[in-house]
């Protein structure tokens, strides 16, 4: 690990100022991705800007028809939240599947979404629920936030402060996980709203994506049988040592059916 400067600001404006003023600086939330990356010398930022002192970025708020989760809220808190378990149980289930207990106690929702790892769980939940990402500058719809491999719509100095989730009629998540990392080889989040269904897939490609044919079928009949025959095109899907693209394509349908089952139960 190479030397770097370390800053622990007291507020969002100070954190944003540090990010802009120090070239090649990085934010630290839970550090579950960044710290291992530093140890492996895959990244060598000039400075780390630690958000751990910003208590205002932690916690959950019931907005009636929405739930807002602070960016620094750990996965374990979301998983254990009675509010989330009652209003969006699929999201609580997703949070409970992330990593292991140590990762869930330190990793944060804001850090996961900002990092946009192609195999991370939260992007599927955020996109599947049509959430809104609230930043230090603006609000960004989930459909416009995730741009590709580790790429988001965040601008330099822009910091996620919270994520606002609309409450669905039903929602569920299912994933086929890598046994060591517990990242999703394929994870599918399904959410039913009054105006239709959203299906978001993580782990299968270079970034999270929606599946319109499944959304249309499930909007007509919200049952696993409605999507059993839908085949996913392998173009653009990931092939690696863990799974080939055709296997991931098969898993998308399998996990989508399980996600619908989870939503119905």
From TrEMBL:
SUPFAM superfamilies: CO dehydrogenase flavoprotein C-terminal domain-like, FAD-binding/transporter-associated domain-like. SMART domains: CO_deh_flav_C. GO terms for molecular function: FAD binding; oxidoreductase activity. Residues 1-170 form the FAD-binding PCMH-type domain. The keyword Flavoprotein applies. InterPro entries: CO_DH_flav_C (IPR005107), CO_DH_flav_C_dom_sf (IPR036683), Diverse_Substr_Oxidored (IPR051312), FAD-bd_PCMH (IPR016166), FAD-bd_PCMH-like_sf (IPR036318), FAD-bd_PCMH_sub1 (IPR016167), FAD-bd_PCMH_sub2 (IPR016169), Mopterin_DH_FAD-bd (IPR002346). It comes from the Bacteria. Keywords: FAD, Flavoprotein, Oxidoreductase. PANTHER family: XANTHINE DEHYDROGENASE SUBUNIT C-RELATED. This is Carbon monoxide dehydrogenase. It comes from Bradyrhizobium manausense.
């Amino acid at each position: 690990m190479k030397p770097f400067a370390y800053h622990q600001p007291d507020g969002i404006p100070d954190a944003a100022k540090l990010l802009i003023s120090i070239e090649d600086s990085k934010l630290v939330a839970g550090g579950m991705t960044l710290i291992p990356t530093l140890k492996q010398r895959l990244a060598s930022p000039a400075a780390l800007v630690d958000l751990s002192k910003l208590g205002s970025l932690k916690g959950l708020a019931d907005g009636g028809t929405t739930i807002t989760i602070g960016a620094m809220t750990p996965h374990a808190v979301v998983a254990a939240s009675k509010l989330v378990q009652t209003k969006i149980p699929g999201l609580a289930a997703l949070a409970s599947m992330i990593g292991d207990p140590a990762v869930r106690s330190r990793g944060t929702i804001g850090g996961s979404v900002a990092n946009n790892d192609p195999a991370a769980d939260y992007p599927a939940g955020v996109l599947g629920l049509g959430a809104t990402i609230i930043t230090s500058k603006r609000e960004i719809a989930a459909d416009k936030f995730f741009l590709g491999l580790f790429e988001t719509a965040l601008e330099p100095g822009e910091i996620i402060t919270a994520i606002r989730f609309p409450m669905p009629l039903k929602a569920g998540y299912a994933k086929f996980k890598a046994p060591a990392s517990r990242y999703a080889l394929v994870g599918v989040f399904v959410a039913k709203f009054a105006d239709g269904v959203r299906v978001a897939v993580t782990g299968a490609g270079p970034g999270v994506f929606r599946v319109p044919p499944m959304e249309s079928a499930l909007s007509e009949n919200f049952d696993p049988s409605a999507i059993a025959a839908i085949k996913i095109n392998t173009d653009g899907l990931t092939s690696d040592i863990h799974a080939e693209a055709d296997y991931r394509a098969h898993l998308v349908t399998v996990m989508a059916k399980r996600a619908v089952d989870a939503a119905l139960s």
